[in-house]
Amino acid sequence: MKKYGTLVALSLALVFGAAAVYLTNSWLSSKTNTEGAVVVKEEIPVSEIVVAAVDIPVGSRLSDKSLTLAAWPEANIPKGAFTDMAELKDRIAVSKLVAGEPLLAAELAAPGSGAGLVAMIEQGMRAMSIKVDEVTGVGGFILPNTFVDIIGVEKINKDRRKAETILQRIKVLAIAQETFTEEGKAKVVRTVTLQLEPAQAETLALHAHNHQGSIHLILRNPLEQIAEEPPPVAKVASVPTLKSRVYKPKPTPFNVEIIRAGGREKVTFASAAAE
């Protein structure tokens, strides 16, 4: 019995010994791999910039509730971003801003420019409203921040009318009294407000108040720029009409010898064509 107990104890010792050796080897192997590996941790430099905390509609006045700071990779900070929220207090958004989007100078009205439509007018430009209907307003698809060409139609006489493009790539500031609408949703209105240069406003006013004509708005792709005017076409001078001349050959005389009783006589006659 004593011999049997000794055998059991020896067996257990061997088992625990083998387990200890296995665990020790595993630990040493893990430690060697960990120490031998080179872990590279690259830190990307970031800076805090101002972003929209919520969706901000066009024409909205900015406040602390609508803004927040967010860490942004310095290499990807867009041009015109802000780092101080105090700079943006009471500024007006002239573009729709999405939550989490950086605020840029180009998307905001100039400081002190006021609120509403006046804040959306670029320096040196003017805002002018014209009447439209479902047809002249392209079925209601002319929306704020779209671009249009303007065609003037003039009545020449009872049966003749002349149409020409008088203005190109004109920005739409508002439709009716709205400076922002749901994107792509058509809305038929009675007035459209356009952003124009002073000279363009004068041209449009003349056509808009011409009782002998009308104006039409033509919706255009916002990415399409105004094409350069083609070089002037040289006028073709009128060519005088030349009168046709019929060539008449010079008549050739011919001789006839007449024989009479008294002798011979030579007589010259002109060609019959000369008669």
Observed structural traits:
single chain, 275 residues, alpha+beta, Type Iii Antifreeze Protein Isoform Hplc 12, 5-stranded antiparallel β-sheet, two-stranded antiparallel ribbon, elongated
Task: Note down, in words, how this protein is organized.
The protein is α+β, with helices and mostly antiparallel strands and 275 residues long. Among the domains are: 46-118, Alpha-Beta Complex (Type Iii Antifreeze Protein Isoform Hplc 12), CATH 3.90.1210.10; 122-220, no CATH class. The protein has a five-stranded antiparallel sheet, covered by helices on one side. A two-stranded antiparallel sheet has the order 1-2. The radius of gyration is 47 Å and the shape is elongated. β4 (147-155) and β5 form a beta hairpin. It has two helices and nine strands. The protein has helices at 2-36, 198-208, and strands at residues 46-52, 67-73, 126-131, 147-155, 161-175, 191-196, 213-220, 254-260, 263-269. The longest helix has 35 residues, at 2-36. Residues 231-239 have low confidence and may be disordered.
Topology:
Blueprint lengths: L1 H35 L9 E7 L14 E7 L52 E6 L15 E9 L5 E15 L15 E6 L1 H11 L4 E8 L33 E7 L2 E7 L6
Antiparallel strand pairs: 1-2, 3-6, 4-5, 4-7, 5-6, 8-9
Give the helix level as a range of percent: 10-25%
Question: Which spans have pLDDT < 50 for at least 5 consecutive residues?
Answer: 231-239
Q: What is the makeup of the main sheet?
A: 5 strands, antiparallel
Q: Counting H and I runs of at least 4 residues, what is the number of helices?
A: 2
Radius of gyration: 47 Å
- Helical/strand content category: alpha+beta
Q: Write the element-wise H/E pattern from the N-terminal end onward.
A: HEEEEEEHEEE
The tally of strands reads 9
Instruction: Please tell me the overall pLDDT.
Output: 78
Q: What oligomeric state best describes the polypeptide chains here?
A: single chain
Strand order of the largest sheet: 3-6-5-4-7
**General form:** elongated
Instruction: For the record, give the distance between the C-alpha atoms at the N and C termini, rounded to a whole number.
Output: 171 Å
Strand portion: 25-35%
